[in-house]
Amino acid sequence: MQCVFVQIQCEPGKAYEVADEIALLEVHSELYSTSGEFDLLVKIYIPDDRDIGHFLHDSVFGVPGIERTLTTMTFKTF
């Protein structure tokens, strides 16, 4: 499994709606509201046989109300 973190900036006033939609997708391990430039932080484990870009595009990135994302890939667990 490949672990990625996705920070999500939502349209104004849409953070709770976006979070609810992501929760319904059941693709995340953890989902947090955050302060700062981004509204949400999602931890996702992607199966090794799936393309990361396609997986995120086909699931999370299609949620209405998302304005911008920043994906951080992980490489090693310490």
TrEMBL record:
The residue ranges of the Transcription regulator AsnC/Lrp ligand binding domain are 6-77
Q: Which domain of life is it from?
A: Bacteria
Pfam families this protein is in?
Answer: AsnC_trans_reg
Q: What is this protein called?
A: RAM domain protein
Q: Say which species the protein is native to.
A: Pseudooceanicola batsensis (strain ATCC BAA-863 / DSM 15984 / KCTC 12145 / HTCC2597)
Query: What taxonomic classification does the UniProt entry list for its organism?
Result: Bacteria, Pseudomonadati, Pseudomonadota, Alphaproteobacteria, Rhodobacterales
